Amino acid sequence: MRKYRNLILEKLLDKYESSRSFIGANAVNQSFKIELSKEFPEYNDDSNIREIQQINEIVCDLENAGLVSAVRRKNGLLRAVKLNVNRLEDCYFEVKRKPKKETNTELLELLNGYREGNDIVNEFARDQIERIENNKKPAHFKDDIRDYSNLLMTLEKVTKVEEETFVRDFSIRVLGDSKSFEKMKSTVISILDQYGDFPDRESILQDLNIIKNPGHVFFKGNGIIQINNQIIDLNFIQGDVGISSSLLSSIKRIEVSGKSVVTIENLTTFNTYQPKQEFVIYLGGYHNTLRRNFIKLLYSQNPCADYYHYGDIDAGGFNILLHLREKTGVQFKPMHMDVETLSKYRESTKPLTESDIRRLKNLYGGEFDETISYMLENNCKLEQEALDS
């Protein structure tokens, strides 16, 4: 019998918590009821006398306790049960359920604490606050405030890893044990992929210096690199070369034999790009420590070369360029990231999302204003893969 008692109250509370009245958005008072024959098909089956009697008794008990009111048919059988909204606290207590308003209050306090965080966490938190205000469940919330707090903290920390760190060590440092991060890793990657600017979902953590194995930097084109006593002349190599982080300290010389250095955001574009007189480096979105140190070493030995960054024409691409300049101290110039390119490949552009528009407007007041204005006016952005064909 207890099963039906809890089920009836739970279903009524679900109705209430999913209503506009719950968030104070309804101008008139709503009533919340369940049709017994719809919710419990056995109540409509005359052969189930025992079940029908149990449900009748339970509804009568709940009615006598003032938690619900019953709507009866002419034959005396129950048609529906209505929730008494004046006794909500007692209903929650009866089923040992935490009121959604309490949970929402805790979630809003938690999320507001991340409104001043990095762009990814800030945007994610803002969207979840909006969902709560519209009486929707926050994304990736599994009814555990502590787990959600750990998720947000991990999102904040994952973008601030300065040196290559193994997944296990990151988990211990941030969450206190070696396996906790593995349990939430797929969720973290999904959020980073949705709100960040990473060209390849599979390498997001690596781009953020969180690795399973030592990372590599890939380059090709016109140049010479000396690792200890070994000299590699890229001019005679068809394709790219990769060196691991463990070899970075062994590099004695990097010589750009062409006119310029080009960093490329996307791996597919890097693979298809045919250097003419350029030394080309795969950046992988927001460059990690390995790529940043490689670029600094390259620049220190080749300060007179021209430096360009080739990325997506969207808010992410512009931010990656600004981040690249800030972290390396090299004044990279944008390459194929202008109105002319957008216009030329207009048929390959994609429409802007609300997040795109918001982030583009945040970049106003700088060198990209002409391009941003065009993008907003024409509702377009362009991924660099569109230029590969």
Would you give an account of this structure?
This protein is α/β, with parallel strands linked by helices and 389 residues long. It folds into three domains: 93 residues, Arc Repressor Mutant, subunit A; 97 residues, no CATH class; 175 residues, Dna Topoisomerase Vi A Subunit, Chain: A, domain 2 (3-Layer(aba) Sandwich). 44% of the residues lie in helices and 15% in strands. It contains 16 helices and 14 strands. Helix 13 links the parallel strand 13 and strand 14. Helix 1 packs across helix 3 and helix 5 packs antiparallel against helix 6. The protein is elongated and about 95 Å long.
Question: Which structural class is indicated by helix and strand composition?
Answer: alpha/beta
Q: Estimate the helix proportion, in percent.
A: 40-55%
Order of helices and strands: HEHHEEHHHHEHHHEEEEEEEHEHEHEHHH
Q: Quick one: CATH class of the largest domain?
A: Alpha Beta
CATH topology group of the largest domain: Dna Topoisomerase Vi A Subunit, Chain: A, domain 2
What number is the mean pLDDT? 90
Number of distinct helices: 16
Q: Domains counted in the coordinates: how many?
A: 3
Distance between the termini: 68 Å
Work out the strand percent.
15-25%
Q: Sum up the overall morphology in one term.
A: elongated
Which oligomeric form is depicted? single chain
Largest sheet: 6 strands, mixed
CATH architecture of the largest domain: 3-Layer(aba) Sandwich
Read across the widest sheet, the strand sequence of neighbours is 9-6-12-11-13-14
Q: Unreliable stretches, pLDDT < 50, 5 or more residues? A: none
Per DSSP E runs of 2 or more residues, the count of β-strands stands at: 14
